[in-house]
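Aim 2, interim progress. The first record below pairs a target sequence with its structure tokens.
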Amino acid sequence: MKRTCDNWQDKLPAGKFGSHLYEEFELRAKNVSTEVFRVKRADEAGKIILDIVKETGAKSVALVSCSLIEASGIVNELKDNGVAVYTEQGDIAENIGTADIGISGVEFGIAECGSVCQDALAIESRLVSSLPPLHIAFMESRNIVPGIEDAIDIISGFFTEGYISWITGPSRTADIERVLTIGVHGPGRFVIIAVDEGTDGGAA
């Protein structure tokens, strides 16, 4: 899949990110209706996702892989439980309109607002995070910066072209008679799985 940046870990400013910001990030994320789960290792995410599949009755998942998702082994677990998993570009394009869940990775979180940053240069990344009614995002729990200004500084330090998405909770709008409605323009449910142990062996 195409990427705006090949190594986001190198773009995070030394001394200005880390798991010490996780509690604030989690609080802010939950305040905007994001569901947040923290696990030590990626392979512990399987039970969380399978519980969500069982709870929702999901039959199909569109998935854009990343190193954390690969380490989780969730693709095989889903298939073993009878869930159709679409990972190839053509399969995602053909089935995204009916997929029950979208799964992707995100690059880092922002403690100030509970948002996450996603490298969404690949159209498939945009599709799985915006069209299914439920989006599950994997993130390293150490990859959290303090504020929006810090996030903008990271992007502006290298960005010349590409596509970056900022995701803050499930889709919501209140533009019709100021009545808040969830899930109109995107997923009505957003889940973050924060993983302590990075795939490079580093830990939060």
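The second target in this work package is listed in the same format:
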Amino acid sequence: METQVSVSALFVYPVKSARGIARSRVRVGASGLEWDRQWMLIDARGTFLSQRTHPQLARIVPEISAEALVLHAPDVPALRVRLDTVGEPVPVQVWKDACIGVDQGEAAQEWASRVIGQGVRLVRVAPDMARAANVKFAGTTPAPLGFADGYPLLVCNRASLEDLNRRLPRPVPIERFRPNIVLRGLPAWAEDRIDTLLMGEVTLRLVKPCTRCSIPSRDPCTGEPATDPLPALRKFRFDRELLGVTFGENAVIARGTGCEIERGAHCRVTFDTLPPRA
């Protein structure tokens, strides 16, 4: 079974758990969209910070210029970190994965610590960091990762959001779910059955439903508590195998590293033949 859809939105999140950037065109890198989750904040133990525990991360607004990562936050001057910054390698932890980051310097440490309200450091993915998605879902072809939670890309379906919003007291925006790619033209929840997504020279494989944490219950611009979609989702989107509520699909890159995806691009979607998960 095949159908055609289009890309209605593209987002990258340069700093893990900070604000996203909407893009009209984006290059596909080896570990996901260019610049996506290439930096993160860590505590004194080297463990990553997340909006789950530090909702103020939502107030950090990143920008990628030709030469620098620029970070904006309320009541502080902008921070500029050159894209060619080198630094000391430091051990860092992303969930159960022991990784290597490159420390981005004292100015970044002071800025981030002031914004977060505790001592933290900004690190970048080390060029030689070896981390890959879970082969149980991603398959035996390596799917390299930066600092994303577990997979290179997250794909969401706008029709599914519209269906969810009809079940909520107040609608929530797609930004709550932090997708990389948003599709238009599919029926609600059809993403559950997608096998491959082809966009020009780029082919993605959708490999695992995305189980959701508490982040979608917060305003994506402020980090403050807002309409929580999880109780409504739990009524009809609880995955018994994954033991979690799902929205969106994790994806890996099958083909097209170095190529670009453009907002509005037409896609070819192929569906698997397995029964839907429950």
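The CA atoms of residues 238 and 245 lie 4 Å apart. This observation will shape the mutagenesis plan for the next reporting period.
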